[in-house]
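Journal club prep, shared notes

We agreed each person brings one worked example of a sequence with its structure written out as tokens. Mine is Aminoacyl-tRNA hydrolase. I'm keeping it raw so we can talk through how to read the token line rather than staring at a rendered picture. Sequence first:
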Amino acid sequence: MNLAWTPADWELDFSFIRASGPGGQNVNKVSSAVHLRFDIQRSSLPPLIKQRLMALSDQRINGEGVVVIKAQDSRSQEANRAEAVARLQELVQSVAHTPKARRATKPTWGSQQRRLAGKALRSGVKAGRGRVQGD
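Then the structure, token by token:
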């Protein structure tokens, strides 16, 4: 399932905070970091994607089903906002991809024989490492 999804403005809740860490004057004065909140249940996502997101064990998803993403890499509020939205889209895209079903296969007869021949060879090498018995 390939989902080209872009969240609507009403689905996203942004709050701007001061970024943590070093940065001097700019980091102390400007609220450039972004907290993005996205409520999974109220969103316009398909029910299957909502269910997969809720089942995901990701620390960014809290118990109420709200995704909280913090972006603070850039000095610009707009760049951090765009990065947070991109991370949300990446998270949704990760659950939208359905993995291919795995089918059990048997090793071929030749591969089994090669494996057993290698084991016999190695066994012979190790058997030769025993004590030497004198005459």
